[in-house]
Write a structure and sequence with these properties.
558 residues, flat, Rossmann fold, six-stranded antiparallel β-sheet, 17 strands, alpha+beta, single chain
Length: 558
């Protein structure tokens, strides 16, 4: 359950710290006050795209959950009793995520969000039009997670082995030509005796070679200038020592010591230069050998279009593997063909079991949703889930002697159908459902699922748009009933829904200096009467509106 949501510095929503109840949480307020900003901040926190206003400073969104779904536990840095998600949003738009104070990626947040919070708006209810979403809902209701996972693991293996078989069968006719080509490439790479370490060493040696000529010239020049030139410093230092040593001055010995030290240091430098000259003496034959070896590496890298020697070795290993596989292709095709046949049969059987489970669940879920639609004021509508086999005349895969198309989800489709009037035919939701009907069907589906699985917190953003009167009252009562099974956070503008039993939060705007600020707080019982009355009559609340608001609240509480 979501127990707390904190927002700081999110544009005009400077500070909000909301503690949610476990059941129904109702949010109402002035038009344009920023109700949807709460939903957008939650979307941003969960790693999804969010429509946020420009920021001038870092904003922080934090949510706390008092129960941790089992699927979320592996993502935690360490065991914990509560889960705290935090998102820091910088003015540049960059977001940083934290999971119990440890950094996390947006991808991880989106993965665990599935188990924590589900956000719906009237627009997002359009997902019901999508076939994958319809199938996922039915599979959740049928608790087919394990069966579907087993099918998909088998499907992946089947696809891989089928692909290998297809390549082998296709390649048999071209095998000899391919083997000859592979043999040439393998021979070239094998004879090169490649090594990443050798290539790195060659690069260093080539760089050294490139500077050897210049180094030899400079070192030889200065060895001559410092030692053999008639005016070399060493000669001058010796002459200076002899000449100055004749002076009968007591201080002269200090000078002579310095001159001797200078001559000694100079001699050491000359010794180092002489050593370097011997070490880097040019060997034309060795230099040519190094350059040829280095050029061979670079030629192969360019020829095979790979960036590194390591990648070149990986390519060599792949070519060897392909060569070995093709060499034994003829003898390996038949066992592989038998293996693929066994996998195909197993996949068809698992697909059939998925189809049977979906058919049974489709009837039960259709009945469930149908009963809830009556509670939501859609008793005239008829809801039905069709599970149909995917036939493909050109498919080589058959079940019950009929060619079927194998997909990652089986060989059957799931379609939600609706009849909006007794004389009308059943048709896909996308063709017949209005916005209001779609919202109520979504709620009915969630109610049915809540009986089978633990649902995450439902956030509903004005999905009651288009309702009024009896329809609004029915939806309000239904939401109140559903909130006993799943936590609901609801933004509404309808008094019949806002009057339902639950925690009621009010959002409003107020001017602070030259800017507007958004505030939110939980209403007391008396304040709820005023707010429901405002929803009934507008900003000018009349006594009649107050009386009607009390009636609505009393009716919801009874």
């Amino acid at each position: 359950m979501l127990t707390r949501l904190s927002v700081q510095n999110l544009a005009f929503l400077r500070q909000a710290d909301i503690e949610w109840s476990y059941n129904l949480n109702i949010i109402t307020g002035e038009t344009g006050a920023g109700k949807s900003l709460l939903i957008e901040s939650l979307s941003a926190l969960l790693g999804y795209k969010a429509d946020l206003p420009p920021l001038t400073e870092k904003a922080i969104v934090e949510a706390e959950f008092d129960t941790i779904p089992e699927a979320v536990i592996p993502h935690l840095p360490e065991p914990a009793d509560t889960l705290i998600l935090r998102c820091e949003i910088l003015p540049t738009g960059r977001r940083r995520f934290f999971l119990n104070d440890s950094p996390a990626s947006a991808q991880i947040l989106r993965e665990i969000a599935y188990y924590l919070v589900e956000i719906h708006s009237q627009h997002e209810s359009q997902q019901l039009f999508q076939a994958p979403f319809q199938r996922e809902l039915l599979d959740s209701y049928a608790d087919l997670r394990a069966e579907l996972h087993a099918y998909q693991a088998l499907y992946t293996t089947w696809k891989e082995r089928s692909s290998v078989l297809a390549e082998l069968e296709k390649g048999l006719t071209e095998r000899e030509e391919r083997l000859a080509w592979l043999s040439q490439q393998i021979g070239e790479l094998k004879s090169a005796n490649l090594s990443p370490d050798e290539y790195a060493q060659l690069e260093k040696q080539i760089r050294r070679l490139d500077h050897q000529a210049q180094a030899l010239q400079l070192l030889s020049q200065w060895f001559y200038q410092l030692s053999e030139n008639p005016h070399a410093p060493s000669t001058l230092l010796r002459e200076a020592e002899k000449a100055l040593g004749r002076l009968p001055l007591p201080e002269i010995q200090t000078i002579l010591n310095h001159l001797e030290e200078a001559r000694t240091s100079l001699q050491e430098a000359l010794t180092h230069i002489e050593t370097l000259l011997s070490e880097i003496a040019l060997n034309p034959e060795e230099a040519e050998r190094l350059r040829q070896r280095y050029d061979l590496y670079n030629t192969l890298l360019i020829k095979y279009r790979v960036p590194t020697v390591g990648a070149l070795l990986d390519l060599f290993n792949r070519l060897v593997s392909e060569y070995e596989m093709l060499s034994h292709a003829q003898e390996s095709v038949e066992p592989l063909r038998n293996e693929v046949d066994r996998l195909t049969q197993a996949l068809l059987e698992k697909g059939y079991r998925l189809e049977l489970a979906r058919l049974a669940a489709a009837q039960a879920l259709s009945d469930h949703v149908q009963s809830y639609l009556a509670d939501l004021g859609l008793g005239y509508a008829h809801f039905h889930i069709a599970v149909e086999r995917i036939y493909s005349p050109d498919s080589p895969y058959k079940w019950a002697d009929q060619p079927v198309q194998l997909t990652p989800y089986g060989f059957s489709t799931v379609t939600f159908l609706l009849r909006t009037a007794p004389d009308f035919p059943l048709a896909p939701l996308s063709q017949v459902a209005s916005g209001g009907e779609l919202s109520r069907i979504m709620l009915a589906l969630k109610a049915a699922l809540a009986e089978k699985v633990q649902l995450p917190t439902l956030v509903l953003d004005e999905i009651d748009t288009g309702l009024s009167g009896e329809g609004a009252r029915r939806m309000g009562e239904f939401l109140s009933w559903l909130s006993k099974r799943v936590q609901i956070i609801l933004i509404t503008h309808l008094p019949a829904i806002a009057a339902q039993r639950g925690s009621h939060f009010y959002i409003w705007r107020d001017r602070e200096g030259d800017t507007w600020r958004t505030y939110i707080r939980q209403l007391s019982s008396e304040e709820r009467i005023q707010e429901v009355a405002r929803l009934l009559s507008g900003e000018a609340v009349s006594e009649a509106a107050l009386a009607a608001a009390r009636d609505l609240l009393n009716l919801a509480a009874s």
